Amino acid sequence: MDALVNAQCAYRVFHQIAKEDELIYRFFDMPKAEVGTPKYVANQMKAKGLQKLRWYCQICEKQCRDENGFKCHTQSESHVRNMLRVGENTKKSIDQYSQQFKRDFITLLRSGHGEKKINANRFYQEYIRDKNHIHMNATRWTTLSEFVKYLGREGICRVEETEKDGLCIAYIDNSPEALKRQEALRQKEKSAKGDEEVSQLILQKQVEEAQKLKSSERPEKTENNELKRSDAHPLQISLGTVKKPTKEASVTKPKPPSNALSVMKPKSSSNKVSKSRDDSAKPKSALERIMMKEQRVKQNVTHR
C-alpha cells in the first residue's frame, strides 16, 4: 500500500515538473535562424536530407552536420566500438562496400540512361541524391576518375574523355537478351542490304537491255551523197523549170447543157487540145526544149 502511494506521488510530481518545463520552453523559445547564416544553411541541408559527404560516417551510417559534429562522433564510444570491429578484417569490409557501390552505380546507370553517353560527374551527382547510398570514401577507389577508368578496363562501360564534355561513360549491355537483339538487328540489316543489292543488279540488267535495244533500233548511217567535183571534168548543171498551173486552168468551168447536135460533133479537136495541155503541163528536159526550139526555127524558115 505504501509503495502504491509513493508511486502516485512520484507521478504527480513528474507531471507537475513536465508542465513547468513546457511553460519555460514556450517562454524562452528562441527565434529562427536568419537567412544566409551557417545555422540556416545547416537547417536547410538537414531538411533536404543531403549534407556534405565528408561529414558522413559509413561504418556507423551517420551523417554529421559540420566538422565539429563529425569530430565528436569519431570520439564517441559507439564509433570506436564499430571501428574496432571493422579493424579485425579491414579488407573484407572494404571489398563489401566496393562491390555494393559498384552494383548500385551500374544498376542506376543501366536503368536511368541505358547505353547512352553521359558525363561521369553529372551522373555521380544523380547517384548521391539517395541519402542511403554507399559513399566512395568507404570503397577502395579514392576518386571518381579512378573508378570510371576501372569500369572501362573491365569492359563494363565505354569511357571517353573529350575537351568539351570531359570524362563520359556509357553502359555496355552484355546480357543474353541484349546480344539476341543485336544479332537480330544485324540479320535484319544484312537482309536489307542483300535485298538492296539484288534490286540494284536487276535495275542494272534492265538498263543494259534498254541500251542494247536502243542501239539496235538506230538507223544505219546514210552514205554521203553530196556532189563531189572532180578536177578532170568541168561541172555541168541542168536546170529544169516547172510551170505552175494557172488559176484559170485549175478552176473547172461549168459544162454547158448538152443537146443532140453537140453529141454528134467529132471529139478529135478536144482530144488534141487536151493532149497539148498535158504536154505543156509536163516538165520538159533540156533536150526536149532544144528539139522544140529547132522545130520552131524550121517552121519559121519554111513560112518565109
From TrEMBL:
Superkingdom classification of source: Eukaryota
Biased segments, Basic and acidic residues type: 209-232, 275-297
Alphabetized UniProt keyword annotations: Metal-binding, Zinc, Zinc-finger
Entry's Gene Ontology molecular function annotations: double-stranded DNA binding; zinc ion binding
Cellular component per GO, a single term: nucleus
Claim: Iron is one of the keywords in the record: no
InterPro entries, sorted: C2H2-Znf_KIN17, DNA/RNA-bd_Kin17_WH-like_dom, KIN17-like, KIN17_WH-like_sf, Znf_C2H2_sf
Family indicated by similarity: Belongs to the KIN17 family.
Organism per entry: Trichomonascus ciferrii
One Gene Ontology biological process: DNA replication
Annotated stretches, region: Disordered: 209-304
Name recorded for this polypeptide: DNA/RNA-binding protein Kin17 WH-like domain-containing protein
Domain DNA/RNA-binding protein Kin17 WH-like span(s) in chain numbering: 81-208
Low complexity: bias regions: 262-273
